[in-house]
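Incident log, structure service

09:12 report received: a user says their structure output differs between two submissions of the same chain.
09:20 pulled the input from the user's history:
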Amino acid sequence: MLGVSFDGTGYGDDGSIWGGEIFAGSVKAGFERVAHLRSAALPGGDAAAHYPVQSAAGFLEQMEELPDVMSAPFSFGARYRDARQLVRKEVRSFTTTSVGRLFDAAAALMGFTRGATFEGQAAMWLEHMARRANVEDGYPLPLDGEELDFRPLLQAVIRDRLRGRSSDEIARAFQRGIAQGVSDAVRSLCGRHGIDTVVLSGGVFQNELLLEDLKELLKGVQIWTNHAVPPNDGGISLGQAALAAFGPFERAAKQGTN
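09:34 re-ran on a clean worker, output below:
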């Protein structure tokens, strides 16, 4: 099966902060990371989850011809300026592929420049705005090799904000773009690996609008989502138990046949 794991923060086996990964495999056979969100800097580590403009500093550092986001209509403020300095000086900045932090960066560009009082607040705010608009086409999120490239997605958000497009429509085009980019990547990877089942899990998939879009775009593909077990951190312990149970069982079975 193909597993799409989108979250805020997870420890990757390369030592970086994961949160935008696509895996191929199974619990018994093991998993291979076959695609992921393009890496960005995360200034301040976990603190960025509470300040969307801080997350934005890491993602926007890779953008060309970036406008002055300290000025209207963005008005990011001093925290963004300080976070950008952390990224450029490589001080307390970490590498991340987190889709959760990408949502935070987009929310900041759309106007959520204050601090969040709970994790995921900015993304929930973005989803709420997106539900108020009717937009069929999303911004581009292309799969370049093994990377989902967020740069065209954020460039489109910035362009339309400067043009004065409504924040509701921008939010909807952003969400639809995530869904379209993921669905295109999933279909390509399923064909490449001979897979017809996709699992969507991780805290980002608490976003019901994103799930609705993906189910529409992935018609013909068998989709598994969380029901009895939550998609966020509450489901991690079950996965750990499953891996622990299958690992010793498989090793014992192999030893018994030798």
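09:41 both user submissions now match this output. Likely a transient worker issue. Closing.
09:42 reviewer note: Residues 251-258 have pLDDT under 50 and may be disordered. The first helix runs from residue 52 to 60.
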